[in-house]
């Protein structure tokens, strides 16, 4: 592993941490007027969009983003993160529905899900969305 890869992974993790807060805030807002399974989907797409934006301008700023239309890149980001989505939200829903003492611990549940999907999301995002080119 090289330094650029580790730096990107660290930044991706920091961006993901801010995304986790967006996820949690959106989830709690949506729970005021929708059931958990709907609220968790709305929260995911809100935080995924946030993460795409920050990763675009900070984590992968040396990638080929300048030659990509943002809307198409966002779609690629969402599609590339489908495996991570299923890992993330699978863990989230399992903990919420089958671990009674965690039912009200939404931040902890979301953290466990995010951690579960992070590796898949990073590798697929790097390969399929931002095309790491190691430009100076």
UniProtKB/TrEMBL annotation:
Keywords: Membrane, Transmembrane, Transmembrane helix. It is a multi-pass membrane protein. The chain crosses the membrane at residues 9-27, 33-53, 74-95, 107-125. GO terms for biological process: polysaccharide biosynthetic process. It is found in: Membrane. Its main location: membrane. Residues 11-130 form the GtrA/DPMS transmembrane domain. GO terms for cellular component: plasma membrane. Belongs to the GtrA family. This is GtrA family protein. It comes from Aristophania vespae.
